[in-house]
Design goal:
It contains no helices and eleven strands. By secondary structure, it is mainly β. It starts with a strand and ends with a strand.
């Protein structure tokens, strides 16, 4: 069971920046990929950005060029640097980890508790 602890959310004005952190309870080398999702009130939870053990990254179109995901394997931590924030970025942001099960037939998914990001106009 991988435990994920998030930090870094808060209130920021339009155009501002925030950095989210997510620390895993296990080595990142035992985790296939980590990422950030977000969920606004009344909406589904959507992928924001992800990063694999080989540091391949993927971003939602809405955040490309503004958000950057990175990892520090020595600290078991993934970061999401968010710049040029917009009111539509307001949501609860969740950290996610994906790990291949023994046998390689399926994956386990783990979630953090979520951190609120609010961007005021």
């Amino acid at each position: 069971q991988v435990q994920l602890v998030e930090s870094g959310g808060g209130l920021v004005q339009t155009g501002g920046s925030l950095r989210l952190s997510c620390t895993a309870s296990e080595s990142m080398f035992s985790i296939n990929a980590m990422g950030w999702y977000r969920q606004a009130p009344g909406k589904q939870r959507d992928l924001v950005a992800s990063i694999t053990t080989t540091s391949d990254t993927d971003y939602a179109d809405s955040v490309k060029g503004r958000f950057t995901i990175s990892r520090d394997a020595a600290k078991n931590t993934v970061y999401l640097q968010m710049n040029s924030l917009k009111p539509e970025d307001t949501a609860v942001y969740y950290c996610n980890a994906v790990r291949l099960r023994p046998g390689g037939a399926s994956y386990d998914y783990y979630w953090g508790q979520g951190t609120q990001v609010t961007v005021s106009s």
